[in-house]
Amino acid sequence: MSKKTTAAFFLFLGYALALVPVYFLRAWANDESWFLKDAYYFAGIFQGQGFWRYFFWQESYLIYGAVYWIAYSLLAAFLAPPAPLLIFRALAYAACLAVPLTAAAEARRQGRSGLFVLLLWLTFPMAWWTGKISGPEFFSVLAGLAGCFAALRAERFAAVMLAAVLIGFSIGLKLNGVCYAVFAVAAGLAARKPRTFVPGLLLGCLIGFYLANPFMILHPEYYWLRVQHYSPDKVYSLSHIAGILWNQDWHWDAMFNGGFFNWGLNPPAFLWFLFLAWAAGLRRSFLAAWFLAAGTSFLMSAFNARYVGWYWFPAISLLLVLAQDMRAETRLARVLIAATLAANLAGNFPLIAGQYRSKAAHIRLVRQKETLQHFLRDTAAGSPDPVDQIVLDVETDLGLDFSVFPPPEGKAAAKVEGYDAFQWLAEGGAQRMDAGKKILVVQSGRFRAARHWPGLSELLRASTAGYETRVFEGPGIEAALLTKTGEAPAQ
Question: Strand, helix or coil at 158?
Answer without folding.
Answer: helix
